[in-house]
Description:
It contains 8 helices and 2 strands; from the N terminus they run H-H-H-H-E-E-H-H-H-H. The chain has 238 residues and is mostly helical. The two termini are 41 Å apart.
Amino acid sequence: MYASIEEPDEPVMQAGHAAFTSIGAFSTAILDAFRASPQLITGHRQVERDMPHHGAGNRLNTLDDVESAIAVIKEQGEGTSTDPQNPYPAVHGESAHYYAFQEILHKQKRKQTQEPGQPPKREFREAPVPWPTNILPMGVVPQGGWLRPGLPESEVIGFLDEFNRAYSDLLVSLERAWKQGNSQLLDDAESQMTTLQSPARDLMECPLPDGSGHYGPEFRYVGCEAVPSPSERHDGLL
C-alpha cells in the first residue's frame, strides 16, 4: 500500500503496473496549480524552518522556489529519474520511500550491478529484510469511523476518543502556526504528533469481535477546543 502511494511516474525499478493515484501525481498537480497562478506566490506569512538535511526549498518567495521545494519532496519519496536513492538522506545510502517500501515488500535489499557499456541494473538480491513477528493486522475502519453503539468494550471507546482529541489538537496547532507565521508553533505541533502513538498502539492491540483484525484510529476531527501550545503559554498568546 505504501509503495503504491509513493510510486513515481516512471519507477527506476518497475514492480508491475498498477492503476492508482500516487503522491507523486498529487505533487505534480500542486505544482501545476502554482504554475497557473504564480502571482499568488508572495512569501507573505510563511513559516520557515532551517532544515538543510532535507535539501532546498525552505523559503518560497518565487515560482522557482516552489518548483525546487516540490522537487525535493518528490525525490525524497520517489528517488530521481535515474536513481532510487534519496538525494537528501538522513543516513548515507538511504533509499527513497517508494524503494524502501519495495524492499519490505520483496523482503530483500536491492543491489546495483553494472556491466561495461550497459546501464545500471538493480535487483532485489542483497541482504534479506525480515518481516516483523510482532505485527497486528488492523481491520478496515468503516466509512465515518467505528459506530459507537456497536463497540462492545468501553476501553476501545476511550482509546478512540483519546486519539481523536490528540489528532484534533494537532490540526488546530498546525492551523495556529500557519495563521500566526510562527515557526516555534510549528515545532510544537510537530512534537504533538508523538501524542498519537500511545492511543493508536492501544487501539491496535484490541481485537475486533469478528476476528477480522484489530481496531485502528479513525482520524476523526472532533472540535477546535485545543489546549494552548507550550510556546503560546510561554508568550502569553492565549
